[in-house]
C-alpha cells in the first residue's frame, strides 16, 4: 500500500444516495465494505464526514436562521452521519470509534490528536465528527486540519466526480481530467476542489490531496495502493 495512514473525507450529500436528504443504507454499506478492504490490509483510516445531506449553515442563513446557530446545526449533522457510518462499519465486523470535536459524551468521545492516533494504532477506524467545532468553517477544513494533526500521508476526498477537470465536465464534455496537478496550478487556474481555507491548510502543511470517485466500489483500495485513480494534488 502506498499510504499507511489516510484521512478520508466523505461528503454528506453522497450519503443520501439517490435522494437529496438523509441517509442511504446502501451507500453506507458500500462505503463500509470499501473501508474494510483497506483497513483489513493494515491501513490506518481516519474519516471526516460532511453534513450537507441534513443541514448546511448557509442554507439556514438564507431561510433567516442565525448563521452561527445554522453552522452549529450543520456540525451536529456531521455527528449524525458519523454515528451512521460507525454503525455500518461495525456491522461489517470492524472496530470503529466516533470522536467528536464538540464535547458530547457519551455520543462520542471528545476528540484529541493523541486519542485519535492511539485508536488508529490499535486498528480502529476513527471517525471525527463535529467539524472543526467552529462556525464559518467547512468539513473540508476539518478534514485538512485533522489530516495534518494525525499526520496522515494523504487527504483522500471521495466525491461523485472522478477527479479534477480543467472545466466542469457536466457542462463541458470536452473538459480534460488531470492525473496530477500542483497546488500552485490549482490556484493559478482558479479550480475549486474544496474551499480555499482547507486547500491552503493542506498546501502549507505538505498534505497531498487525492480527489477520486468513491461511488465506484474498489476505487478506495486502488487509490490507497497508489494506482492512478482520480487526481493527485501535490507541491
Ligand atoms: N460546519 C461548520 N464548521 C465546521 C464544519 C462544518 O460550521 O468546521 C457546518 C457548516 O454549516 C456546513 C455544515 O456544517 O455547511 C455541513 O458541513 P459541509 O457543508 O462541509 O458538509 P458537506 O458539504 O461535505 O456535506
TrEMBL record:
EC number(s) on file: 2.7.4.22
Entry-linked CDD domains: AAK_UMPK-PyrH-Ec
Pathway in which the depicted protein is active: Pyrimidine metabolism; CTP biosynthesis via de novo pathway; UDP from UMP (UMPK route): step 1/1
Catalysed transformations (reactions): UMP + ATP = UDP + ADP
Presence of the UniProt keyword Transferase in the record: yes
Cited InterPro entries: AceGlu_kinase-like_sf (IPR036393), Asp/Glu/Uridylate_kinase (IPR001048), Uridylate_kinase (IPR011817), Uridylate_kinase_bac (IPR015963)
Source superkingdom: Bacteria
Binding site for ATP: 9-12, 52, 56, 159, 165, 168
Sequence ranges assigned to domain Aspartate/glutamate/uridylate kinase in this UniProt record: 4-213
Keywords annotated in UniProt: ATP-binding, Cytoplasm, Kinase, Nucleotide-binding, Pyrimidine biosynthesis, Transferase
Coiled coil: none
Subcellular locations according to the entry: Cytoplasm
Xref: Pfam families: AA_kinase (PF00696)
Ligand binding (UMP): 51, 71, 132-139
GO molecular function: UMP kinase activity
Regulation: Inhibited by UTP.
Function summary: Catalyzes the reversible phosphorylation of UMP to UDP.
Family that this chain belongs to: Belongs to the UMP kinase family.
Assembly with partners or alone: Homohexamer.
Record-given protein name: Uridylate kinase
